[in-house]
Task: structure prediction
Amino acid sequence: MPVKTKSVANARRSVSRSGKSKITNPKPTTHKWVWLSKEGNRDMRDLLGGKGAGLAEMVNAGLPVPPSFTITTEACNYYSAHGNQFPKGMWDQVVAAIKKTEKAAGKKFGDAHNPLLVSVRSGAKFSMPGMMDTVLNLGLNDETIQALIHQAGARFAYDAYRRLIQMFGRIVMDIEAKKWDAILDEAKKQRGIQMGKADPEKDTKDTDLTTDDLREVVRQYKELYKNELGDDFPQDPYKQLELAIKAVFGSWMGKRAVDYRRLNKIPDNLGTAVNVCTMVFGNMGDDSGTGVAFTRDPSTGKDELYGEFLINAQGEDVVAGIRTPMHIDEMQERMPEMYRQFREIARNMEKHYREMQDLEFTVEKGKLWMLQTRTGKRTAASAVKIAVDMVAQGLISKKEAVQRIDPMHVVQLLAPRFDDNDKKAATARGDYLASGINASPGAATGIAVFDPDTADEWNKEGKAVILVRYETAPDDVHGMYASKGILTQHGGATSHAAVVARGAGLPCVAGCEDIHVNEAAKKFSVNGREIHEGDFISIDGTTGQVFAGKISTLNPDFQKETDLQTILAWADEFRRLQVWANGDYPRDAVRARAFGAQGIGLCRTEHMFFETARLPIVRQMILAKNAAERQPFLDQLLPIQRGDFYGILEAMDGLPTVIRLIDPPLHEFLPPFEELLVDVTKLQEQIRHMERDNVDASYQKRELADKENMLHAVESLREANPMLGLRGCRLGITMPEITKMQVRAIFEAACQLKKEGKDPRPEIMIPLIGNVTELQNQKDILEPEAHAVMQEQGVEVHYKFGTMIEIPRGALTAGKIAAYAEFFSFGTNDLTQTALGVSRDDAERTFLQKYVDMKILTANPFQELDREGVGQLMEMAVKQGRKTRKNLEIGICGEHGGDPSSIEFCDMIGLNYVSCSPFRVPVARLAAAQAALGHVTKDK
Ligand code: ADP
Ligand code: MG
Ligand code: MG
Result:
């Protein structure tokens, strides 16, 4: 039986979406709180919830839907806001709707001869966990059951009754599930013993229970209900209904629902609707059944019905997995006519909605009933294939196809992922260890390594390693690049580890606080288990999970993702923004181009200083007392930098390449102060001992002198606030030799390429400009240097001089700055830090998450651009800059350049391009198109 990787029930539960809300202030008495399904339609999801609007639309489309009605989300909001009271008039409308339903169904609520039974189902605008589960068979009581016995037999009737008491008791009245289960399990056990089953507890099915057994279960259920609550199970159907409606409304403000909404940024004021729906029974014999199906395969996107079906069962049985359902194809053999009708409806619903649908249906004695339709949730691969196929089938336009893909799907599609079966096996083995923050998507397997140097070394030996650190710092970067993935115990979604990993397209699980990393001992422990250096681990940066041992991974190849390529090609037709990439190395540039980047928006030059072989030269350059002493070291660095620039300009041939001159504070290139202090103290101690024992300490003394020198230098560079200190253009201004050397290196490389027939397009970016005089100062030194090189080499290179706008003063005086800058690039990481007065690295650890949890901020401003504040500075800078220089080229190179919401904003204020990590380029291409196709403002 072809049941595929994920069960339908599971597939239906994943993913979520957020969206618009509607705040209304209705007059309770005259207001319409209750809608019959035939009165509503698909566009009323705000008011009727997703389920209610779906039922209404199916009625409109002429499909067989059991008579039903919906109580609105407004009623729910009223109820929450008024001390759990129904709005006046609502109940009368419910009673009136029941009367109409009775008429349509030809049955009567609470009638002793022909009772109407209903289901009560919650339904918010988006299906979300935490909402109340459905209660079936409402309306049954000691009297109405007699009619049911008469109509469908005693066994069926008692089975329905015990389900009602159990669901009502558990879901509406909150009596623990296990208490109900205990009674049923005992009944099954007794039956099993009588039947002589080998294992009476496990081998006995619900269906083995006899009428007498079920009657006894009902008796015990009522007893349990009374013992737990002091009241009898309500016999009045209207009382049952009232309590059930209240429970649905109450579940909206339940903890699980509230937590889920916080996490997914869904507003509280959406409310949930309540759907009351005439019961139909799939458990009335072998000509009955129930099932769920997607109109297309939700994991692959294949255009065929995908679902599960059970004969002689109620809906819950499929979802709850009590019995193993059959694949929907089998329904074709068992109930050919029902299958034909259902497939027809499925096709029509898909055409009608022009979207893949997730359907629920029940067959009662050879009649098909539709119970639910909604947009089907799907995997990334399926989403892309369905969109492309639907364009080919003429169901949707290219534009719609582009609009339908969630940018996150692109990320997921391109990230390496675990082999599903292998991951299941690992979980079954008990190898799941812990979960952290899913900081950078993708899965990786490798041996655990606890320091960057070993990572580097082992990588060179061809081993796949995963770098495990308490947290990472800039001098870990070489080890991070050498790893297949990063795992940290500490730090959030914009911690150093997360940012570098995303930039490099490496999977990263950050802030996995359940593990205890001991870097010195080269191990981590988790739940009493220890992982040592050299042991295999597997991490999934998409889910945040960490496993012991190997799990094989599948590596998608962008070039072979033809459906995605198609979508992105369409996206390119619609977008206005260009998409550039941030990249420091030629390999980044190559990758960026393969992903469709149209330029390099940020090439940082300082990593070139960090490399092991170069660091000693860099340190001597920094320690030099004056320009003259500094020059020899700069002379040594020049050819090295020229080589780096040659590589990247060559890879970006014909496309603009923005190179940022040295930016970080110099102390970052020196050993940490504390470390030096310890070394110096130790050496002093050692020398004292040696001298006391009359041992020659001259070697140690020389070492001490060196260390002391370094210590003084570090001390003199030490700043209380390095983020606001001697960095960016301030370095270039105080030590112009350094930036001059860099510009020379860039132009020498460019000229050489030019001579080789290439088309290098360097754009020199001067960082951290707050005052036009700073830019003037640097440009006056650097531009002549550029000209000098071009003259020496006898070639002209197409170039630009410009600046990063990353401190508020720069944005505020952009009009003046534009007189000297041919381009702006918004460095929104620093711009956010300085506009908000928040240090990113510290705030992540201390209060930022709390702010988001408490809703003081709607999102982490380092992940999603703060439009209102930082955005205003940007908008102002764009306007003023272009006033001065009409063709000013403006882009963004902060982390935000890869974030869809931020990209949308960049489109709105008219930037020329966004620049993001190479791996984000496909996402940005899509997001830029979606932005151009309509600025949907997200209200949260
Ligand atoms: P969910 O949001 O969990 O899908 P539903 O109310 O749709 O909640 O589903 C609960 C189960 O009960 C489903 O299998 C559904 O088909 C079934 N169900 C709901 N209402 C009825 C009804 N009126 N008649 C028969 N089955 C129903
Ligand atoms: Mg539900
Ligand atoms: Mg359902």
Q: What stands out?
A: The radius of gyration is 34 Å. The longest strand covers residues 367-375. Residues 1-23, 936-940 have pLDDT under 50 and may be disordered. Residues 107 and 324 are 33 Å apart (CA to CA).
